[in-house]
Amino acid sequence: MIEDEEMRGFRDTCRRFAEKEIGPLVDSAEASGTYPRELIAKAAENGFLGLTVAEEFGGAGGSLLHACVMIEEFSRVCAGLGTPMLGLGQRLIPAYGTPEQVDRYLAPIISGEKLTAFAMTEPGAGSDVLAMRGTATRTASGWHIKANKIYATGAPISDFMLVVVYTDRDKRRDGLSIFLVDSHLPGIEIHKMDKLGHSSMETGIVYFDCEVPEDALLGEEGRGMAYVMSALEEGRITHAARSLGVARAAYEASVEYAGQREVFGKTINQNQVVQGKLSQMLIDLTSARLHVYSAAELFESGAPALVEASMAKVVASEAAVGITDQAMRIFAGVGYINDAPVQRYFRDARLYPISEGTNEIQHRTIARAAGLAGRG
Ligand SMILES: Cc1cc2nc3c(=O)[nH]c(=O)nc-3n(C[C@H](O)[C@H](O)[C@H](O)COP(=O)(O)OP(=O)(O)OC[C@H]3O[C@@H](n4cnc5c(N)ncnc54)[C@H](O)[C@@H]3O)c2cc1C
Asked: pLDDT tens across 24-45, in order?
């Protein structure tokens, strides 16, 4: 993408915010494994939390390209701390919520008063969403939700969650519904999970055995899967932008280090093997950038972009894994020590082939759409 003046200015704004407001919080948040809530208030003040929400709903009405730029710049500084700036709530509540749900849930997300999480995956249902066991059954005054959810990003610090469960298991895909569930209700237990990367972004196992009112249902009963699918393209493209930010951080750090580290009396970037590593990192980074922003442009044009979104997700996440791996080699011993940022980039990047639909599942999407999948 050749950025116009407005987009270049927006990127500068995001970069300045990331370096000034996110940067100083990274070490303590990563070491303690706790998300600094004050960052959300600052992001709200700067209008980032409603970036892609339409103006009629109190947002800034930005495009998916704006979202990618913001996420890339924030993730370049810290992927964990950048994570809650854009979630499914900002997409699904204005699209399918009632005016009351918009007031109660969306407005406080944009103002930074409430944090949200998305709880769909279960221990026995990750790639195969329809294998989930969680249910919501009707009661006299609303619904009873019974479900065990896992890996819910942000759940331990959330004020409410978007929870996907069956309201009619027999209908399979057409039997899933989404509920807006206050995280502090009696009958909800949230346990923080210890994980390899994104340490500053808290992830939870959540047990639901709780009552919610009738109006906790988002949109129509049985449309949950369709709603999730409606956000798939944007989700995959912004996920790819996150990979791009981490890959860029690792590349930039490597270039700088290779220019100052002296071995055998000369900087290591005078060595052709190291130059080859750096140039390959740049090639992979540039390829990822082309995929991410062309998929975002395609989406913005209104054309179907699912295949391009999946490709961008695969290319950018694999680039992040490869580039951060090469960065670890360039930094060698110093990179392995926990206060070096490159080991954080390396750990964070390992998530990207897994989350937002594993890369194997993206290949399945691409193969089916391209007519490569044989019939069996
Ligand atoms: C840190 C983190 C944060 C997350 N955040 C959230 C969140 O906020 N909300 C949420 O709901 N979920 C979240 N997830 C869950 C994530 O989306 C799942 O982990 C992911 O969908 C994969 O599911 P799984 O781990 O159960 O793997 P499985 O589905 O068990 O897959 C295991 C392996 O088999 C492969 N595989 C399975 N089926 C096929 C097939 N048909 N063809 C080829 N290969 C196949 C997979 O690609 C994978 O390699 C998060 C996960 C992590 C680790």
From this structure: 999 999 999 999 999 999 999 9
Structural domains of the chain ordered from first start: 5-86 (1.10.540.10), 116-222 (2.40.110.10), 231-369 (1.20.140.10)
Both tokens assigned to 177: 């519904």
Q: Which residue has a Cα nearest atom 50 of ligand 1?
A: 151
Ligand 1 in reach of 120 Cβ (< 6 A): yes
Question: In whole angstroms, what is the distance from residue 89 CA to residue 331 CA?
Answer: 39
8 A C-beta contact, residue 127 and residue 361: yes
Q: How far is the CA of 50 from the centre of ligand 1 (A)?
A: 28
Q: Which ranges constitute the DSSP H helices of the chain? A: 5-17, 26-32, 38-45, 64-82, 88-96, 99-101, 107-110, 224-230, 232-260, 272-301, 306-331, 341-349, 359-369
pLDDT in tens, 98-111: 999 999 999 999 99
